[in-house]
Specification:
By secondary structure, the protein is α+β, with helices and mostly antiparallel strands. It has two domains: 354 residues, 2-Layer Sandwich (Beta-Lactamase), CATH 3.30.450; 149 residues, Histidine kinase-like ATPase, C-terminal domain (Heat Shock Protein 90), CATH 3.30.565.10. Helix content is 53%, strand content 21%. The strands form four sheets. Strands 1, 2, 3, 4, 5 and 6 form a six-stranded antiparallel β-sheet that branches. The chain has a five-stranded antiparallel β-sheet with strand order 8-7-11-10-9, with helices on both faces. The chain is rod-shaped, with a radius of gyration of 69 Å. The mean pLDDT is 89. The protein binds adenosine-5'-diphosphate (ADP). Adenosine-5'-diphosphate binds next to helix 10 and helix 12.
Length: 578
């Protein structure tokens, strides 16, 4: 039981420790996961900004390159041949707002699409020739910062000079509307997401703003972030062409924003794309990771609990089996201890029996010998009369008979046991055997004043028995009855038919036999331990011989007794069947 409780306690302790460890790890990892999620989120935002920036760079640069190739490859052609390509380029390469040709005098001579080209517009007359001149003089492409278009919105002006050797033919002016770029690369970023994207140039001018369209074309810093140090810092970083992530508090939405920004380098233009997302987005992500973590933790704890429960059940079953086994083994041990104690007791008894037997045999042998010796000594004396002589000889003969009987008694059990006892069965009438037996003990009974009563039914069936062997059995039972019955007692011998057998009962009113000795009196040399037994002498063989003889007749013998009131010895015999 103790083992069982110990095991359960150990399992429970391990279970609690495991749950604590798992919970601790869960909470520890939760902090790490929080940082990781935050980091991952920032990285992801930065990647998006980078992607957008690279997209813009590639798109814009590709368009510049197309115009440059045209200017270079067709520089030898006539102006009308050059402008003849505009339509194809415009249509094949989406993204241009218009492509115009300005001749060497600064006058717009052609444009496609025609409706958006201010043909005849004289840059010098309008005092707008600065960039034109610069492209011509530097003989290289000049890209202006996004500037407001007549038609509204912002546009990037790409001035590509056309030189045939040293001859300046004019400038191809390609205009890309800023919205063309932002619609394509920035607008889709925030679809289905909270937050917004904005694009600024290196002066802090807003080129695109997902939420503040009114801000486009205006200076961000002055307009929005003058009082917001954190954002001001971010915008300065952006204007320097850096990339990274940072956090600021947005007054408009009254929420903390995470900003990821990446530079757009397009020739000498430097812009910066920024993605601004509420910090609560990360909290949602962390929350969802946290929920998954908690679910996982719950499952692990449940597994630990189930495992522990399983172990407890297994241990208690195992313990029960063990307990049952120990119980049965203990029972076996107790049983064999009892048997051992009993065997020991028996051995002691046997040892006592042996000693008793030795003293009994020597006593039984010595007594007749002493009587014979005394008689012989008397006979030695010459002048004894004939009567005395006869008496002496009688004593000698009686004692010799007694010794012969004793020796026979000692030999009979071994004869019976070895099966050397031969029985001569015949049809016997019990009346005569019982009468003979009673006769032979009558004198002894008379001397003790004991009444002998014989009760036999007249029609008692004959039995199948050996007269010579059966007679000593009855005599022995009668002698015992006389021996263990005090003066003026009564002895009866009765017979009856029962269950197809003949039953003979020899009863006395003697000292009786203790219940625990009732069976044992039939053992060889066994004598009830009492003063009277000791005084009575005897070998303890009589009943063992009786039992052997009766059983050899296929009968049974047993005793019934009440201590102090008397005993009855009963034996059965088969009826003579013909
Ligand atoms: P013995 O009479 O020589 O001792 P038995 O085998 O005849 O040996 O008897 C064994 C023992 O049984 C006796 O010693 C006695 O203690 C007991 N016993 C036998 N018959 C009687 C009886 N009728 N009454 C009381 N005890 C008896």
């Amino acid at each position: 039981m103790k083992v069982k409780i110990d095991n359960i306690v150990i399992i429970l302790v391990i279970c609690v420790i495991l749950i604590c460890v798992v919970t601790l790890l869960g909470f520890k990892s939760h902090g790490e996961v929080e940082d990781l999620v935050q980091q991952q989120f920032n990285e992801q935002q930065l990647m998006l900004a980078r992607q957008a920036a690279l997209g813009i760079e590639g798109f814009a640069d590709e368009r510049v390159t197309i115009i440059e190739i045209l200017a270079r490859d067709r520089s030898g052609d006539s102006i009308s041949d050059i402008t003849g390509c505009f339509k194809t380029i415009y249509e094949e390469t989406s993204g241009f707002y218009s492509i115009e040709f300005i001749d060497a005098n600064g006058v717009v001579v052609y444009g496609y699409p025609e409706h958006s080209a201010p043909v005849g517009y004289d840059l010098y007359a309008e005092n707008m020739s600065g960039t034109f001149d610069s492209a011509r003089d530097k003989r290289e492409t000049n890209i202006s910062s996004p500037t407001p278009l007549f038609e509204g919105g912002l546009g990037s002006f790409i001035w590509v000079p056309v030189y045939e050797e040293e001859e300046f033919k004019g400038v191809i002016l390609a205009i890309i509307r800023t919205t063309t770029i932002t619609d394509r690369f920035l607008e889709p970023i925030m679809q289905d997401r909270t937050g917004y994207v904005y694009l600024i140039d290196n002066k802090g001018k807003s080129l695109y703003d997902g939420t503040r369209r009114e801000a486009i074309g205006k200076n961000y810093i002055k307009m929005l972030s003058e009082d917001n140090d954190a954002w001001l810092k971010i915008l300065n970083e952006q204007m320097n062409g850096s990339e990274g992530t940072a956090v600021y508090f947005d007054e408009g939405s009254r929420s903390e924003q995470i900003v990821a920004y990446a530079p757009v380098r397009w020739r000498d233009q430097l812009w910066s794309v920024a993605i601004s997302v509420p910090a609560s987005e990360v909290d949602h992500l962390i929350q969802s990771v946290y929920t998954k973590q908690m679910t996982f933790l719950g499952i692990v704890i449940a597994i630990i609990l189930c495992g522990s429960l399983g172990l407890i059940v297994m241990f208690s079953r195992w313990n029960k089996t063990l307990e049952a086994e120990v119980k049965s083994k203990t029972g076996d041990l107790i049983q064999s201890n009892k048997e051992l104690a009993l065997a020991n007791e028996r051995l002691k008894e046997l040892d006592k029996l042996k000693s008793d037997f030795v003293s009994m045999v020597s006593h039984e042998l010595k007594t007749p010998l002493a009587a014979m010796r005394t008689s012989a000594q008397v006979l030695e004396v010459a002048d004894i009369n004939t009567e005395t002589k006869g008496e002496m000889l009688d004593i000698i003969l009686r004692n010799m008979d007694r010794q012969t009987n004793l020796v026979n008694d000692l030999l009979d059990p071994s004869r019976i046991e070895s099966g050397r006892m031969e029985l001569k069965f015949e049809k016997l009438s019990l009346d005569s055997i019982i009468a003979d037996s009673v006769e032979s003990v009558r004198q002894t009974a008379f001397e003790k004043g004991i009444a002998l009563d014989v009760e036999l039914p007249e029609d008692l069936s004959s039995v199948k028995a050996d007269r010579e062997k059966l007679t000593p059995v009855i005599i022995n039972l009668l002698n015992n009855a006389i021996k263990f019955t005090s003066r003026s007692g009564e002895i009866s011998i009765k017979a009856r038919e029962l269950n197809g057998q003949v039953e003979v009962r020899v009863s006395d009113t003697g000292i009786g036999i203790p219940p625990e000795d009732l069976d044992r009196v039939f053992d060889k040399f066994y004598q009830v331990d009492s003063t009277l037994t000791r005084e009575a002498g005897g070998t303890g063989l009589g009943l063992a011989i009786c039992k052997g003889i009766i059983e050899a007749h296929n009968g049974h013998v047993w005793a019934e007794s009440e201590l102090g009131k008397g005993s009855t010895f009963i034996f059965t015999l088969e009826k003579w069947s013909g």
